[in-house]
């Protein structure tokens, strides 16, 4: 049957998307994380990994034959053409699998976490877009602390992503995540009730 309402959750690096997704999950909302879908698609033996190796060379594998995500990230963010090549391999597959999971989810609404929603250009057939927003300098500090990225690496990621203004223009709902985790979860709970109302309006019980 599929969930009645599809919410696309997005935001820039270090905005707090994962924390917001965990807040939704604790409320019992099905969460489909496209980053996790992408990790499944590049496991050894998956066709997508073979295509990535053919495109970027065996040097992007570690000693066990698994994808070295850090090495690949450095390679593609240094060259926009290589990044686009990787996106062409992965994004259609990610979208297809995420939509399959949403279709199997029988719930009032589900959340699809799509960090590169605007950049991928993919049609996820969403009903609403929720942006987790944060000031750019706060994003930088969080990304450095969480991922250990250098300022140059963070700049490369931010440059490759849609601008904050573009995300704000595309969003139906916005949570500004510049405070405590409790504040973020409070805003998620507020939207949770709103989304339940919208879902009931789409398909009454």
How would you summarize what this structure contains?
The chain has a five-stranded parallel β-sheet, with helices on both faces. 57% of the residues lie in helices and 12% in strands. The chain has 205 residues and is an alpha/beta fold.
| CATH superfamily membership | P-loop containing nucleotide triphosphate hydrolases
CATH architect. name: 3-Layer(aba) Sandwich
Strand content: 5-15%
Largest sheet: 5 strands, parallel
Number of domains: 1
Give, in order, the helices and strands: EHEHHHHEHEHHHEH
By secondary-structure content and strand pairing, the structural class works out as alpha/beta
Helix content: 55-70%
Provide the CATH topology: Rossmann fold
* CATH first level: Alpha Beta
Number of helices: 10
Q: Which spans of ≥5 residues are poorly predicted at pLDDT below 50? A: none
Tell me, briefly, the overall form.
globular
Round the mean pLDDT to the nearest integer and report it: 91
Task: Report Rg.
Answer: 17 Å
E-strand count = 5
Task: Calculate the terminal CA-CA distance, rounded to whole Å.
Answer: 14 Å
Biggest sheet strand line-up: 2-3-1-4-5
